[in-house]
Amino acid sequence: MDKPQGKYAWTAKVGEKGQIVIPKEARDIFNIQPGDTLLLLGDEEQGIAIVPKEKFTSLMNAIMKEQNPDTDHPIG
In sequence order, what are the residues at sequence separation of 6 or more whose Cβ sits closer than 8 angstroms to the Cβ of residue 48? Predict the structure, then answer.
């Protein structure tokens, strides 16, 4: 079975303090560097998504500008 292009799956163990290690391949693919801030989005039915803060901020700024074109106030 071929894997879908651009789709990935990894596993990570949760440590005693609730920490996980993001696998190196994932860090490389998504350019995650030490000190980066990641946003965890949770849905009780869907699970958890981990998103770089900058991507989420850009998306929210675009949505807010679209909803209120008279405002130039960035989020973040």
Answer: 40, 41, 42
The answer to whether residue 17 is domain-embedded is no
Confidence of residue 19 (pLDDT cuts 50, 70, 90): very high
Does residue 7 lie in a domain region? no
pLDDT at 61: 82
Domain membership of residue 9 (yes or no) is no
Q: How many CB atoms lie within 10 A of CB 37?
A: 9
Closest to 38 in 3D by CA, of 23, 49, 27, 51: 51
- Mean model confidence pLDDT for the chain: 84
3-state SS assignment for residue 24: helix
Residues spanned by the domain of 58: 24-67
